[in-house]
Design brief:
Radius of gyration: 23 Å
Shape: elongated
Strand content: 15-25%
Largest sheet: 8 strands, mixed
Strand order of the largest sheet: 1-2-6-3-7-15-8-14
Number of helices: 12
Number of strands: 16
Length: 422
Amino acid sequence: MTDLETRVCQEADQLQQELYDALSCLVRQNTENFSDHGNERNIVPCLRDLWSRLGLEADVFSPLSLPGFTTHEAYLPGNHLEDRPNVCAVWPGTEGNRRVMVAGHSDTVQIGDESKWSVPPLGGLIKDGKIWGRGAVDNKKAIAIGWFIVRVLQSCGIRLRDDLVLAAYSDEEAGGGHGALAAALKYPSDLYLNLDGSGGTIFTHGSGGGLFEVGFKLRHPTETAEPVYRAVETFLEALRQFGNRRREELNAHPMFSGSVAADQAFRLNHVLVGGTGGTDMRSATVNFMFYSLMKKADIERELKRLVDDLKPDMDRLDVDMTPVKHTSRYFLPVTPDHPIPAAELFNDCIEAVTGNPAPVRGHNLSDLPMFYYYGKGDVFNYGVGGHFAETGGAHQVDERLDCAEFLKMAQTVLLFLLRFSG
């Protein structure tokens, strides 16, 4: 590192408690995403306060306020975006010829059963060297880092050449994507550093896919859900084979082979038989998600064949099965055919801060394709903290972020901006 870079990293170390306090404030705001509505508006007062300390003005806007948004090809109705704002701010550079966006999403998955948490899920508690609470890992750490890098650079008397956009976008969980789309459209940037990630990995590639549902209805009256349950069992066996093909598909790609993304290429979300509380013994629904690198039309044909092939079994069981329908958008695969120099530079910065370079892989990310297809410049994702299947990781009970890892992530972003935009 240069003397200047060392000084900036040392200043971040001196101010680290402010980073943790900023994340704690953000975690205390309930921003749960319920798919068709969300609480993202609750983060606005905390962000306004944080950014005002830096002399930055918060731009609070609904994605629906953008001209032509509801006619955009990536818009999907039904998410009630009018009260789910993005919150952005711009720190002008000395030249302003380029624009770099540091982005993260403000919404979180639902808290779930609070009795299973050992700490208040919205407490933002800082203890045992960790910051605890829903959204600490996924993804309010990104928003806190965006604030912190400006705080540190201002403290050091440094101004970047490039304009820096801080973006806290809404509607990412549950396959939303509208917040990232709106951020990309309103603030077209030469680079999108999207800090939605985990495991200390750089993600340059993303799979396609989404959430899907199938319904079943027994054709004759019944006092037991067993007949429709047998139909669901038959379908699930075929669905398991479909899921195995998705895992094999991702494992065959060098950016996904042996990755968490390949392991998670198929997930069964829920099965409901007999209606809620046994109110309809004739009906059932199966909800699932999968990830694929195939074209949307090709994967839809495969799903249609799956349903068509099961029709004789359904007729034998006297059950009607609906076509497979989307319950989220279908995200397009991201497979760039060129190197991303900014991601390579970022990895150099990771190595300078941590002593080791990060793996560069593909993952299942709903925001990456929105920036990739509808933004102006290159995009990659990065983040630390546990992933979905790890205790205390993203989406888990007792979600928590290690403070030391968090600080190193912030120092990496600072170092990168000094080299890329300094």
